[in-house]
Amino acid sequence: MRFSPDDVVCRVALNLRWVRTAEEALRAWLPLVSELRPVSTQFEAASPDGLRRGYLADLLVVFPPPEGGTTEDGAARDRLLAQVGDLARRLGLDPAAFEVDEDGLGGVLNVKDEQDGSPYGAYLVLVLTGADPLNPEGEQADYDDTGEDLL
Question: What pTM value is reported for the model?
Fold first, then answer.
């Protein structure tokens, strides 16, 4: 998938531990999905052998550049923080927990304490300007890793 160099691209990982059926999970996530209008979604039951329980979702959300075109370097960082702050609040997370990378073009919001309480079960938000945070080169990739390094 191709993005504008000024797009703020977010991967949002969700986990509803308390739901027992896919229908319950989808109903719980429907308001969020309707509001964010992700360009890609993936829903699945958590593996019984995995670290998570219940149902999982991965949303790819893109915030396009502001109406006047592209942003300058200083404004790009401010815009990134503003977009991530708005997204974090929508998810019920603390925007101050967002850690910007050294380039100022992306970062991560990792919920370390499950008691922080996103009503949607958000536990990880990866952000990158102009590219998919899981796929910055733009190619399809298949990861065999367990993902334990993301916890």
Answer: 0.82
